């Protein structure tokens, strides 16, 4: 039986993804801080489900806890890192920026590195990171969030290069959602907001296809393309 760990499975995209993995016969390991929500999800599952209460900002503990969860599950094929936070923070409040960096950069890198080392020793595996379209360009209102997502995408690209150069059978997938209807989608004038279930279905398909990168939902590829080519003098006025 295949096994997957989803970090950030208590709500939103990660929660829907955990349900999809389970409905496709995977045993799942579900990780987050809100244990009540993890227990509720576990109660809904018809497959073996392992829960771990981990705050990923605590990087010393996160590495040991992830290693422990992997041991408990005995073998793991896929690790998905969906955990993340973000603030609209035009006033540059450091506590908000620090929390974003601690979670989306330090927490993410600690997990990604631990999963990569585990897959290298196991000689196969699939690491999936949920970054964002936001990582393509800087933001005047959420500078730390956009920068943290750029870090994620770049880090994942680095791990993919490592896997290919060292001829490891490890797939690295960078999922870049546009907008998904979760607690994370904040602000006004939101458009093309996808239901979390629809987003998770598309993410699951991209994982099965072992894609290097996927925009979620698919039409966000158009926005990604525009963001990449738009010159600064226009981008800075939007
Ligand atoms: N929604 C969007 O429009 C959108 C767009 C692009 C990218 N994304 C990305 O998609 C990912 C999932 O977000 P979502 O939209 O599903 O939002 P969400 O419902 O708020 O889910 C965030 C998940 O991350 C977990 N998490 C946050 N901080 C954590 C920490 N310190 N330790 C452990 N777990 C932590 C949360 O669990 P606990 O609070 O229980 O710990 C929760 O399970 C995020 O990385 C986000 O940046 C979202």
Annotation keywords:
49% helix; alpha/beta; two-stranded parallel sheet; 9 strands; binds NADP nicotinamide-adenine-dinucleotide phosphate; 7-stranded parallel sheet; single chain; Rossmann fold; 238 residues
Summarize the structure.
This protein has 238 residues and is an alpha/beta fold.
Record the SSE blueprint.
Blueprint: E1 3-7, H1 12-23, E2 27-32, H2 35-44, E3 49-53, H3 59-73, E4 78-81, H4 94-122, E5 125-130, H5 143-165, E6 170-177, E7 179-180, E8 193-194, H6 196-208, E9 213-216, H7 220-229, H8 232-235
Parallel strand pairs: 1-2, 1-4, 2-3, 4-5, 5-6, 6-9, 7-8
Helix pairs in contact: 1-6, 3-4, 4-5
The structure holds NADP nicotinamide-adenine-dinucleotide phosphate (NAP).
CATH topology, by name, is Rossmann fold
Number of helices: 8
- At the first level of CATH, the class is Alpha Beta
Helix coverage percent: 40-55%
Taken from the alpha-carbon principal axes, the silhouette is: globular
Say which CATH homologous superfamily is assigned.
NAD(P)-binding Rossmann-like Domain
């Amino acid at each position: 039986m295949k096994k997957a760990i989803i970090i950030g499975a208590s709500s939103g995209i990660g929660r829907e993804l955990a349900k999809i993995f389970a409905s496709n016969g995977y045993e799942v390991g579900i990780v987050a801080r809100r244990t009540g929500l993890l227990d509720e999800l576990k109660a809904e599952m018809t497959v073996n489900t392992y829960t771990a209460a981990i705050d990923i900002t605590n990087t010393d503990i996160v590495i040991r806890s992830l290693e422990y969860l992997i041991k408990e599950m005995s073998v793991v094929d896929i690790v998905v890192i969906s955990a993340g936070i973000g603030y609209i923070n035009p006033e540059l409040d450091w506590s908000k920026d620090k929390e974003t960096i601690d979670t989306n950069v330090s927490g993410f890198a600690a997990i990604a590195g631990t999963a990569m080392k585990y897959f290298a020793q196991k000689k196969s595996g699939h690491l999936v990171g949920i970054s964002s379209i936001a990582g393509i360009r800087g933001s005047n209102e959420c500078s730390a969030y956009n920068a943290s997502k750029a870090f994620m995408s770049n880090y994942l690209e680095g791990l993919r290069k490592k896997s290919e150069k060292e001829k490891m059978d490890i797939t690295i997938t960078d999922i870049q959602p546009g907008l998904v209807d979760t607690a994370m989608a904040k602000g006004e004038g939101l458009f093309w907001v996808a239901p979390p279930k629809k987003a998770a279905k598309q993410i699951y398909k991209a994982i099965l296809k072992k894609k290097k990168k996927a925009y979620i939902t698919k039409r966000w590829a158009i926005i990604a393309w525009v963001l990449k080519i738009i010159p600064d003098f226009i981008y800075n006025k939007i």
